[in-house]
Structure formats: structure tokens, C-alpha cells
Q: What sequence folds into this?
């Protein structure tokens, strides 16, 4: 396989680089030197793997620095400087050219039949407590966690649906096997934040909780105050989702492969301290990370905005919001920071989806009529939304996918990106909404006013988006469609969406880069993304149906022995299957391009999900003296947080 | 006879006596009015309130633009300055034209005054259509300028809608919530407090326990629980009513206590006994003899309850469970202005906050004045 | 007196039981439960949600149980002094509340002292100089605090103190001290962060007390005994402090009932805006995510404190004003 060759050559280069580094002695942070001198830690050579990963500096080689301060609005795992323990230190990652390169793993080999992936780990790499990191940790993650239905964490991610076996070849080599060809596996290896990844778990730490590894697991669980071993395992398996049980209950540092170890957590602060065993060095042989400590404060978003302009925030990529663009720009000099505009990948901050399975005999046929959806698009003055709400930072974009290897040129001048009230009116007349009442509202076939209800989420910070919805309401009302906006708190919103109660779903339209949407979960193709769910009932049916087809469930598992939801028309089943087919092709291959073209043409033509304004930059704030700050997106990243894969090279100039 | 030396003094005495006599014979209401007049702040407050309510009632007439009309070229426009001098010479009130552009770095709209273009302020001009008092379609507005001039007395918000008109329309909702809420409180408070105080016994016990119970519930969870239970499919008007109801839930308990306490006190007064001996019915005793006895206290209590309702509306909006756009209320507008960007770059969006402060302040002054006046025989 | 107190306590317990039930019901009024919040979180992390996952979570959190079963579980653990576990923070409620309680109390007590120090002299001055310019100025300033929505005042003050004095905005500590051990420097840093919250929280309370004190003092000053004392040549200051002020303070003492819970959860909205780690914002967060044990327990704590406060203020009233006798209530 050409691809395998390319990967190996990349690995070769990295090995050579590694060898070059080997020639010079490794050095370490001053704080660690003291600990080594005091005999509390082994020397840096002993702590690093035989062949450490070598970072490629974004700007330059850095210097060891003290503390970085960041502020986040809540305790969510993704918004400190590193992700959940096993999600941040990816075995590999996808570069901007869609190449998967080694990271924690030295190299990968995807078999020619796409049915197995061999992962070579770095010999001598160690967990943050000094315990060796080996193939056992990967196999344990699969056998004890992903494949074990007794622990509730076994919510199988899409790619794991296909992986059937994890085999230890030797101490540093693991082979993942599937029954069907599944090349997406390789890309998934480098996908940051791609869902429930956890390709490895600290076996030496967790096995005491698992009955298969420790016959006394139930006693251990009782000791820790749990009713059963399942509960105990569940509470300790994943660091963040389980509320830092290890730290809070036991004051214990959980072994990690991350650049920093979480050492302190309260509901107002989090502290991470450098991992003395981190397995990466800079080109000069200095062990990473450069920064000693991350102190994260939890504060109200507006307080954080004030702290940003006061120059108290060293790095922010979650709170900074386009609505405040002028505020950040105006205070840059005084606050000593830079406002970074990261070019997003076609991301539309506002999108909408018309529910194809709405439970309304009058509305459903009209919602299912393509001309109706085209009319909705034509009635929207996206240029004005861009100018008014987004300060002209984006551009009108109905289908926000950019820079793909399949054919997109005809989408670039999409006729439906335009604003044409007359055509919108004509189309609405054609679908049976030609009659109007005295107030000018269009009447449905039943003679009653034909109303639309847009539903979205109330998030205080999303007021710009709400302004966009207000404009859309105005535009649709201008063509005679009486429109209402209903916002609900997100949990309620999800309930209403899953309950098939929402007529027009609104939310951001995020497909991300090509590599990203290559590995999007299958349910996306069943009913649309979470926010832009265009067919809840068909989605329920398809997701259940594919499980029965694959044999992971039987009809008896469902109420009354029938599939839930509603069987979709053939073409939507086809769409779903096209994606299954696509997951058997290699990103960028001719078969991949052909099938992708089919999928995206269908989506594009049928306007199941529509963006309004796209190409919006993502804002990030970085203090001017902070070095090696990522300034652009790469590979599969869809948000800045994904770039934390490189956070170990941040330093203060 | 006609030149009696003490005539003058006698006349003075007679005048003083007349004044005193008027004072002693004056009805309690007159006395109250006099005492109220002595409270300067209360007078000022009352006048301001009258003006504000007048503007709110005729919001359509006084507003310059439709509160929903967007001016896409004038987003976040600062308040327009009304000028009297052009090139150093006195001129009838006018505004200059505005040239708009985008700041190359901050991307914010920038506005430059165009001294070439003058738009005199005109009175009783034709503008957008509205319904006077909600009934009569009308196009006449108090002030306006000719197109393409713009007059944004309080500036514009993020979509370029005129804040002045929005503040006026918002006043309708925000100010009426106080009144409606107080009316509900008043009704419940008088009824239950009256029943409780007059009849006493087990009825009194039950009502008092319910009040104590309601008062020991913390406010925010109570609000949140009730507001969240309002289905999101409900129309805005019904939501408005429910929110008013929620706000008055706590209002009536305080009032009922006041009513009961006063009744208990008055019940023992001699004149009530006298009425009872005369065979007056319970209803007659309550309405004719007891209620007037503490009406003034009730009014004080009510005046002071209104500002809490107005503040309550803004608080509900702040925690995201109050009214929601597209409804225009001061609380909704404040919620959208509750950010650092506004305070720093668009402070005029905080004008609804200023209005809340002024109105609440005035209600308090009036309440204070009424309280001073409440017991005129002191 | 002892039997009165005992009766009151028994009655309080009864009220608390009813309260607990209603509270528990109110928390669950909004549609959905904690699980919907949890699922929303998982979605945000792009974690696929399967029916099995939902089911196992439902069992784990005991959310599948009927209302009464959930309630009785909660009550039983409450009686053991255990307020249950917080879903969203995944730790015992006792611990969660504990960490915030100290800061809440510190903040509220210092506000309280400040409020009394400012309000009582102003109130006395206002009453003794009724309708004077000073009275008007005091009234306007007092009411200004009452009339300004706290959340707005907090934001504006935070912004202004930052732009004009360069004070670090929000929270109770500068970033350097956020995660530091207690030290002299940290205490100094805390003191530097107190003015804004103290002013914002204090303003509303000040107005209230000025008004109550002014009103009741005016009543007292007109009474016969004051006039008599004055004709007997008692000095103005002594005359004022000796009786009228003492009596006029009664209504303020009766507000202690409401003060105790306010000390814990007071000024929730202000605390949110200023990012103060007190109990109030925690309660709001718990309610929003339907973290019922956390929310329920905080509410119960507040209600209990409220009732205890009422009892204390009733007893205090008796102690201060001998004319008040025990009124035995139902």
C-alpha cells in the first residue's frame, strides 16, 4: 500500500531525528533537577523512553517556564490545557496534509486488507508514576473496558463497533483486528477528542477494581465504599467524567501519559503539575513540557472576559467570542495579548434543519418538499446576517464543507447561497402555501396559518447566534411564514429534539475538515448532527436496524419486537449505507472520492441541513509573551482545544 | 367702635382659629395629602412616575421608530446628539447626518458626523404605524426627522434597533408587571389576611401556617421551579401572566400579615364594638369600619411592593427564566446588556437599567412619603 | 419559657418535614431530570449515547425510582446527617457545601457588620432630622442601593474598579493566590478583593435598615415618654440612645430570621457575576442541572436556618423589650 509506505517513511524520518537527539544528552526542568539530586526521582535518561518523541516547534525551541494561568467557565474536561488523561496523549495524530504520524506510538501499520492495525509503542515510555507503559495497557483498555458490557463505559464508539480483538504481539506491539475492512481505524488513531477514545488505560492502577483481573475486586470495591466491582471500576476508569473520584476521595494522583498531572481540584480551581516521565523532548533534547504548572480558575464568562482585557488570562480558546471581537481588539495593547483569528474549516455558527419526520400531517409533506427547504434558504439574507451579527468576519455559506479532495467547485457558487425573495415566494406558492390571510400570513392546505417554530438552546454566551435567529425569523416572515423562536435550556432542548417535537432545529453546523468528517459517527448519517437533527424518527430506526444487521442486537431487544422510530424511504437508507461503504475506503483514494461525492452531493442537493454564514474564524486569546501558540487548525481539529496536542511546547518568552 | 385697638389681633386670632379649625375639621385624606406634600422627595418621585407612566401608555406616539425595525447600517450607534448650534449660530433643534463605516481593526461600526447634512427635529410627524392605546391605528409621532436622517435618542443595539423606542415599549411590560402583580397580591392579601384576622380561630391558624410556609421557601428555587414548569410552547402573553403570578406569590403573604395584624388591633376598638352592638353585619363591619381604618397602611405597603416586582422581573430575566426576546421588557434588555462589552463599548445599552433605578427609586420615595402621611393624626 | 421553646421546636420540625416534601417536588417540576443534563454533557464531548448507557446511568443515579421512593431515600439519609451525593460534582453534598460555607459566612458577616455600621447612624440621623437636606441625601443614597439591580451594579462596579484602580476583577483571589496555601499574602489579597462584593451586597441591605429604623424611630420620638424625659432635662444624646433607639431597633431584630439563610445564600446573583465561590451560585447551578440532592439539601439547610433565625429573633425581642410576652402559637 502506497499509504503504508508513506507512513513508514515518515516514521523513518522521525526515528532518524530521534537518533540525532540521542547523540546529545537529555536535559530537564530545573524543578526536576533538584528532585533528581535529592534522590527522589531517577535521572532524566531513565525516565524518558529509549527513543523519545521529538516535537516540531511551531515557532522555535522554548525555555522552561513557571506557571500558566487559564480561566474556564465550568469544570468540563476539554477546556483546561489538556484533555482527559487518555484522550489528550494521542497515540498518533493527523497532520494538516491528512497524514497520520506517530506520537505516543512510534509507528502504525495498517494491513493491506484494512482488517488490522499494528501499533508500535515506545519502548521505555513510563506512566507518570514511573510504571512502564506497555502493550498490556492497550489490551487492558479493550478487554476490560471497551469489550466488557458489565461496565457502563462500554458505550461503543463507532470505530470500536468494528474492532473485535486487541492482541498483544510483544511488550511494545499491539494489533487491533476487525472482521470487515475498516481503514478509518488509522485516522481514528490520530483523532483528537473524537469521542470515547481511551485507547489505553493504566492497567497497574485499575486492575484491582476489575473482577477478571482481581478475584477480590468486590472486596476492594466495598473498601472504597461501592456496592459492586462494576460500580467501583466505573468510578475510576475515566478521569474527568467521573468527577476526579481518585483525587477527591483518596487524594491519589492517577497515573497519566499527559504532559501534566492533575494534582488538585476544587469547584473553583484545578492545578496540573508537570509529569516528570513525559515522553517527548524538543529538538535540543530538553524534556517537555516547558511549563511547570497550569493553574485553572473557574469563573463566570463575563468575569473571564474582563480578565482577558486585564491581561490576566495567558491563553483562552473557549470563552473568547466573536460578539466581543471589538472589545478584545481595543484592549490588546493595554492587556498585552493578541487576539488570534484561527481560520475555521467552513464551520457555520448558525445552521438549521427542517424536521423530515415531524408528527404533523399538514406540515410533514411540506417539510419533505425540497422546494420548501430551498425557499427557506433563498429567503434568508445571509450577507446581512454576516454583516450585522458577525461583523463581516464570515461569508454566506449553505453547506460549510471546505477544502476536500472530492469535487466541490459547483457548491462554491451555490444558487441557494443567494438571497432571492421573489423566487422564495414563487417556490412557496408552488408547494401549496399560495393562500394568505388578511394579515398576509401564508395558509396551509387546511386553511389555517402555516407557522414555523425554530428551536434552539439558551446559552447566555450565544447571544450573537440568537440575533441571527431573530433575523431569520424576520426574513421568513417577510415571505409570509409566521415564525416563532423558542429557546430552551440544553437538557430540555435535547429531550424535545429526541422526542421529535422540534419543527426547525437550529444550532451550529460543524462538519469540520475532510479528515474530520471522514470519521464522523454513523448516527450523523442517520439523522443529522446533534444540533441539526433532521429526522429523529428515521434516525432511531436506522440506528436500531444496523445493530440488528450487524448482530450486536436482536429484534427482541426492542419494545414489542419492532424497530423503534419509523422506517425511512429507501433513498435515506441508501445514504446511510453509502457512509458505511465509505468507512471501508481509504481517505483520498478514488473509491473514497467517488462515494464521498455521492454522499455530499445528495446532502447538498437536498438541503437537509443548511448553514447560513460560514467561514467564521475561531477566536483565541494569547498573551504576547507566550511562545509556540498554534495559530491555525490542522488535520481533524474542529476546535482550538484539539490543538492541545501541542500544548507541551507552550512557553513564556 | 371701628377703631378698637385690638381689632388687628382679633382678626389674626380669628384667622388662626379658622386655620386651626380647618385643620381639625379636615378629613383624614386632606391631612394625609398635606403631610405627603411635606415630603419633597415623595413629590418629585410621584411626578416622575406620572410622567414615566404617561410615556409608557403612549409609547407608540412617543417612540421615534418601530421597536422592531432594524437599521442595518446603524448597529450599536451611540445616542444621537440633538443640537442647537450650527456653525456657531443658533438653529432650531436638529441632528447632523451620520456617515458609517467599519473600523479596519476592531470591525466595529464607526459613525462620523456629517456637518453638511442637517435634519431638523420635527414635531407631530408621520411615521410607522402603531395603535394608540392599543386600539386606534395611527401614524402620528411626537418627534422625528426626515429621511435619510436618523434620530436615536438612546442609541441602537446589536441589530440596529432604536433603543429609545424599545425602552418606551419595554416600560409597558415592566411597569405593568408591577401593577398587575400588586393587584393580585392586594386581592389575595386583603382577602386572606382579612378572613384570617377577622374570624380568627382555626381559619386563622391554617392561613398563618400557609403564609409561614410560603415565606420559609427560598425565593430563587421557588421561582426557578415554577418558571421552568411553564411549557415552552406557551405563547408569550400567557408566560407573562404566569411570571407575574410567580412574582406576586410572595407579595401577598406579607400583605396578608399586615392586614391581619391591623385587624386584630382594630377589632378591639370601641367603635367596632359599637357597630357590632348596633347589629351591623360582618361584611359591613369589615368594609365600612375596619378597612378604612388601615387603608393607608395598605397603600404604603403596595407602593413599596411594586418596585420589588419590577426588580424581580429583571432578576428573573437575568437567571434566564423570565420573559424572553422577542418580548421587549427592561429585564430582557438588561439581560442582553449584562456583559463587559456593553459596559465598556456600548454603555447606552444600560439605559433600561437606569430606568429601572429611577422608577424603583421614585416608588420608594412615594412609599416613604405615604408612610409618613399614613397616620395623619399623629 | 422552656416549654415555649420546646413547642416552637416541635412545630419547626413539622414545618421542615412539609417543606422538605414540597422542596423535593418543586425541584423536580421542570421537565427532565439530571440524566438529561448528563446526556447533554456527554453529547458536548461527542460521546456516543446508547440505550444501555442511559439505562445504566438511570440505575446508578436511582432516577428510575418513583418520586416517593426517591424522597424517602433522601429523607432517611438526611436523618443520618448525610445529605446524599451531588450528581454533577460526584461527591458528597456535605463536602461540597462545606468548602463553600466558610467563604459564604465570612463574606456575609463582614457585609452585615458594614451594613449595620453605616445604616444605624444614618437611620438615626434621618429620623432626628426629618425632612432636612441631610435626610434627603441619606434617603436617596440608601434607596439607590435598593433600586439598582444587584447583578448590574456588580458588573459595572467590577469594570470601573478595574479600569480606574486596576483592581483584579472577579473572584476572591488574584490568580497568583487562587491555588496557593493560606498565607499572610493570601489574606491581604482576599481583603483587597472584598470591597466590590461588600459594596454591592451591602447597598441593598443598608437601604432596608435605614428605612425601618427611620420609620420606627420617628414613631417613638413622638411618644409621651420622650417628651417627658426631655422636659425633665435629660440630654438629647442620652435621651435618644436610652430608650427610643433601643425600641426602634426591635423591627431590625425581627429581620434576623431572614438574615441567617441570607448569610449563607445571600446575593446569589451578585455572587454569580463576581464569580464568588459561595453557596448561592452553587444552589442555582444545582437547580439548573436538576442535581436534586444537592439542591434539595441546600434548600433544606436554608429553610432550617430561617426557622432557627425566627426563633432566635423572637427570643431576642423578649430579652430586649420586656413588654413583649411569649405569645404561644398554634
A:
Amino acid at each position: 500500500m502506497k499509504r503504508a509506505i508513506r507512513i513508514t517513511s515518515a516514521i523513518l524520518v522521525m526515528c532518524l531525528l530521534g537518533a540525532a537527539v540521542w547523540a546529545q544528552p537529555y536535559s530537564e526542568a530545573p524543578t526536576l533537577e533538584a528532585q533528581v539530586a535529592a534522590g527522589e526521582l531517577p535521572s532524566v535518561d531513565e525516565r524518558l523512553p529509549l527513543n523519545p518523541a521529538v516535537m516540531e516547534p511551531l515557532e522555535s525551541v522554548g525555555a522552561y517556564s513557571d506557571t500558566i494561568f487559564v480561566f474556564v467557565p465550568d469544570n468540563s474536561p476539554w477546556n483546561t490545557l489538556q484533555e482527559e488523561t487518555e484522550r489528550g496523549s494521542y497515540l498518533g495524530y493527523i497532520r494538516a496534509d491528512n497524514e497520520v504520524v506517530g506520537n505516543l506510538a512510534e509507528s502504525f501499520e495498517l494491513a493491506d486488507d484494512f482488517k488490522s492495525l499494528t501499533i508500535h509503542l515506545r519502548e521505555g515510555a513510563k506512566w507518570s508514576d514511573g510504571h512502564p507503559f506497555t502493550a498490556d495497557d492497550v489490551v487492558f483498555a479493550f478487554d476490560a473496558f471497551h469489550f466488557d458490557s458489565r461496565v457502563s463505559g462500554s458505550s461503543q464508539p463507532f470505530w470500536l463497533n468494528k474492532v473485535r480483538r486487541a492482541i498483544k504481539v510483544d511488550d511494545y506491539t499491539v494489533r487491533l483486528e476487525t472482521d470487515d475492512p475498516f481503514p478509518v481505524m488509522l485516522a481514528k488513531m490520530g483523532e483528537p477528542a473524537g469521542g470515547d477514545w481511551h485507547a489505553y488505560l493504566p492497567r497497574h492502577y485499575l486492575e484491582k477494581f476489575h473482577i477478571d483481573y482481581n478475584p477480590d475486586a468486590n472486596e476492594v470495591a466495598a473498601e472504597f465504599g461501592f456496592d459492586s466491582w462494576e460500580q467501583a471500576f466505573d468510578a475510576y476508569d475515566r478521569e474527568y467524567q467521573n468527577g476526579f473520584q481518585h483525587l477527591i476521595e483518596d487524594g491519589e494522583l492517577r497515573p497519566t501519559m499527559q504532559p501534566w498531572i492533575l494534582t488538585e481540584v476544587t469547584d473553583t480551581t484545578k492545578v496540573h503539575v508537570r509529569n516528570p516521565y513525559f515522553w517527548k523532548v524538543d529538538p535540543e533534547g530538553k524534556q517537555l513540557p516547558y511549563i511547570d504548572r497550569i493553574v485553572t480558575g473557574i469563573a463566570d464568562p463575563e468575569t473571564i472576559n474582563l480578565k482577558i482585557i486585564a491581561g490576566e488570562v495567558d491563553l483562552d480558546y473557549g470563552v473568547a467570542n466573536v460578539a466581543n471581537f471589538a472589545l478584545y481588539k481595543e484592549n490588546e495593547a493595554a492587556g498585552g495579548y493578541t487576539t488570534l483569528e484561527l481560520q475555521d474549516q467552513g464551520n457555520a455558527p448558525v445552521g438549521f434543519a427542517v424536521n423530515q419526520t415531524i408528527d404533523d400531517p399538514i406540515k410533514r409533506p411540506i417539510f419533505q418538499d425540497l422546494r420548501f427547504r430551498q425557499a427557506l434558504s433563498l429567503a434568508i439574507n445571509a450577507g446581512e446576517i454576516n454583516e450585522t451579527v458577525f461583523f463581516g468576519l464570515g461569508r454566506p455559506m449553505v453547506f460549510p464543507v471546505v477544502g476536500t479532495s472530492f469535487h466541490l467547485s459547483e457548491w462554491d457558487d451555490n444558487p441557494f447561497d443567494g438571497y432571492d425573495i421573489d423566487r422564495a415566494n414563487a417556490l412557496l406558492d408552488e408547494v401549496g402555501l399560495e393562500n394568505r390571510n388578511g394579515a398576509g400570513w401564508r395558509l396551509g392546505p387546511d386553511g389555517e396559518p402555516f407557522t414555523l417554530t425554530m428551536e434552539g438552546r439558551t446559552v447566555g454566551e450565544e447571544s450573537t447566534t440568537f440575533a441571527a435567529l431573530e433575523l431569520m425569523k424576520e426574513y421568513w416572515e417577510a415571505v409570509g411564514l409566521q415564525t416563532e423562536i423558542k429557546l430552551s435550556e440544553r437538557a430540555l432542548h435535547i429531550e424535545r429534539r429526541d422526542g421529535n417535537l422540534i419543527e426547525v432545529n437550529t444550532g451550529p453546523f460543524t462538519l469540520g475538515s475532510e479528515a474530520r468528517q471522514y470519521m464522523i459517527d454513523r448516527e450523523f448519517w442517520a439523522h443529522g448532527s446533534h444540533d441539526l437533527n433532521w429526522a429523529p424518527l428515521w434516525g432511531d430506526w436506522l440506528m436500531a436496524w444496523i445493530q440488528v444487521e450487524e448482530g450486536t442486537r436482536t429484534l427482541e431487544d426492542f419494545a414489542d419486537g419492532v424497530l423503534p422510530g419509523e422506517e425511512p424511504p429507501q433513498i435515506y437508507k441508501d445514504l446511510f449505507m453509502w457512509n458505511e461503504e465509505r468507512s471501508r475506503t481509504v481517505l483520498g483514494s478514488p473509491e473514497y472520492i467517488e462515494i464521498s461525492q455521492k454522499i455530499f452531493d445528495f446532502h447538498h442537493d437536498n438541503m437537509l441541513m443548511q448553514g447560513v454564514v460560514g467561514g467564521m474564524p475561531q477566536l483565541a486569546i494569547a498573551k504576547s509573551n507566550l511562545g509556540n501558540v498554534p495559530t491555525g487548525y490542522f488535520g481533524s481539529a474542529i476546535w482550538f482545544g484539539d490543538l492541545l496536542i501541542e500544548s507541551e511546547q507552550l512557553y513564556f518568552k | 367702635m371701628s377703631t378698637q385697638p385690638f381689632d388687628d389681633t382679633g382678626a389674626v386670632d380669628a384667622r388662626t382659629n379658622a386655620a386651626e379649625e380647618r385643620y381639625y375639621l379636615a378629613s383624614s385624606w386632606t391631612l394625609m395629602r398635606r403631610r405627603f406634600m411635606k415630603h419633597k422627595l415623595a413629590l418629585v418621585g410621584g411626578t416622575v412616575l406620572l410622567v414615566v407612566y404617561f410615556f409608557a401608555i403612549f409609547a407608540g406616539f412617543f417612540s421615534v421608530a418601530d421597536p422592531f425595525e432594524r437599521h442595518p447600517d446603524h448597529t450599536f450607534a451611540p445616542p444621537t446628539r440633538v443640537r442647537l448650534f450650527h456653525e456657531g449660530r443658533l438653529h432650531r433643534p436638529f441632528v447632523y447626518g451620520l456617515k458609517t463605516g467599519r473600523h479596519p481593526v476592531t470591525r466595529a461600526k464607526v459613525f462620523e458626523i456629517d456637518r453638511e447634512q442637517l435634519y431638523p427635529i420635527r414635531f407631530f410627524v408621520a411615521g410607522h404605524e402603531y395603535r394608540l392605546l392599543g386600539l386606534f391605528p395611527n401614524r402620528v409621532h411626537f418627534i422625528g426627522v426626515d429621511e435619510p436622517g436618523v434620530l436615536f435618542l438612546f442609541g441602537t443595539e446589536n441589530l440596529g434597533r432604536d433603543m429609545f423606542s424599545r425602552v418606551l415599549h419595554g416600560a409597558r411590560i415592566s411597569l405593568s408587571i408591577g401593577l398587575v402583580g400588586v393587584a393580585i397580591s392586594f386581592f389575595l392579601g386583603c382577602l386572606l389576611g382579612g378572613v384570617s384576622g377577622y374570624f380568627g380561630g382555626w381559619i386563622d391558624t391554617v392561613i398563618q401556617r400557609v403564609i409561614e410556609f410560603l415565606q420559609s421557601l427560598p425565593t430563587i428555587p421557588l421561582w426557578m421551579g415554577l418558571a421552568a414548569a411553564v411549557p415552552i410552547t406557551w405563547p408569550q402573553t400567557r408566560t407573562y401572566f404566569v411570571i407575574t403570578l410567580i412574582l406576586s406569590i410572595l407579595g401577598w403573604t406579607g400583605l396578608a400579615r399586615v392586614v391581619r395584624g391591623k385587624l386584630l388591633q382594630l377589632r378591639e376598638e370601641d367603635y367596632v364594638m359599637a357597630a357590632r352592638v348596633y347589629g351591623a353585619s360582618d361584611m359591613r363591619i369589615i368594609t365600612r369600619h375596619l378597612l378604612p381604618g388601615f387603608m393607608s397602611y395598605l397603600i404604603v405597603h403596595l407602593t413599596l411592593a411594586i418596585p420589588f416586582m419590577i426588580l424581580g422581573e429583571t432578576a428573573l430575566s437575568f437567571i434566564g427564566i423570565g420573559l424572553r426576546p422577542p418580548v421587549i421588557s427592561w429585564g430582557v434588555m438588561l439581560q442582553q446588556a449584562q456583559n463587559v462589552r456593553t459596559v465598556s463599548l456600548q454603555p447606552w445599552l444600560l439605559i433600561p437599567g437606569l430606568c429601572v433605578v429611577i422608577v424603583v427609586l421614585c416608588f420608594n420615595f412615594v412609599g416613604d412619603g405615604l408612610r409618613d402621611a399614613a397616620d395623619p393624626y399623629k | 419559657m422552656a416549654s415555649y421553646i420546646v413547642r416552637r421546636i416541635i412545630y419547626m420540625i413539622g414545618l421542615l418535614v412539609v417543606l422538605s416534601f414540597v422542596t423535593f417536588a418543586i425541584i423536580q417540576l421542570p421537565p427532565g431530570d439530571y440524566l438529561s443534563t448528563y446526556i447533554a454533557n456527554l453529547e458536548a464531548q461527542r460521546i456516543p449515547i446508547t440505550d444501555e448507557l442511559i439505562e445504566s446511568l438511570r440505575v446508578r443515579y436511582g432516577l428510575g425510582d418513583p418520586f416517593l421512593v426517591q424522597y424517602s431515600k433522601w429523607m432517611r439519609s438526611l436523618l443520618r446527617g448525610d445529605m446524599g451525593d451531588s450528581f454533577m460534582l460526584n461527591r458528597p453534598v456535605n463536602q461540597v457545601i462545606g468548602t463553600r460555607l466558610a467563604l459564604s459566612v465570612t463574606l456575609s458577616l463582614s457585609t452585615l457588620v458594614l451594613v449595620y455600621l453605616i445604616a444605624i447612624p444614618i437611620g438615626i440621623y434621618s429620623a432626628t432630622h426629618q425632612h432636612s437636606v441631610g435626610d434627603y441625601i441619606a434617603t436617596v443614597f440608601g434607596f439607590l442601593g435598593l433600586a439598582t439591580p444587584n447583578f448590574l451594579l456588580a458588573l459595572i462596579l467590577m469594570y470601573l474598579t478595574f479600569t480606574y484602580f486596576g483592581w483584579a476583577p472577579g473572584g476572591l483571589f488574584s490568580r497568583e493566590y487562587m491555588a496557593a496555601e493560606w498565607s499572610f499574602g493570601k489574606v491581604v489579597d482576599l481583603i483587597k478583593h472584598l470591597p466590590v462584593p461588600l459594596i454591592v451586597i451591602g447597598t441593598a441591605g443598608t437601604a432596608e435598615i435605614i428605612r425601618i429604623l427611620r420609620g420606627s424611630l420617628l414613631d417613638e420620638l413622638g411618644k409621651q415618654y420622650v417628651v417627658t424625659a426631655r422636659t425633665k432635662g435629660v440630654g438629647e444624646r442620652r435621651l435618644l440612645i436610652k430608650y427610643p433607639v433601643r425600641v426602634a431597633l426591635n423591627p431590625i431584630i425581627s429581620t434576623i430570621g431572614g438574615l441567617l439563610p441570607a448569610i449563607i445564600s445571600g446575593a446569589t446573583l451578585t455572587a454569580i457575576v463576581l464569580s464568588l465561590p459561595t453557596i448561592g451560585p452553587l444552589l442555582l447551578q444545582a437547580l439548573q442541572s436538576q442535581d436534586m440532592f444537592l439542591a434539595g439539601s441546600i434548600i433544606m439547610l436554608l429553610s432550617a436556618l430561617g426557622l432557627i433565625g425566627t426563633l432566635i429573633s423572637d427570643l431576642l425581642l423578649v430579652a430586649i423589650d420586656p413588654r413583649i410576652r411569649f405569645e404561644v402559637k398554634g
Observations:
- Residues 350 and 465 of chain A are 6 Å apart (CA to CA).
- The radius of gyration of chain A is 26 Å.
- Chain A touches chain C through 52 residues (CB under 8 Å).
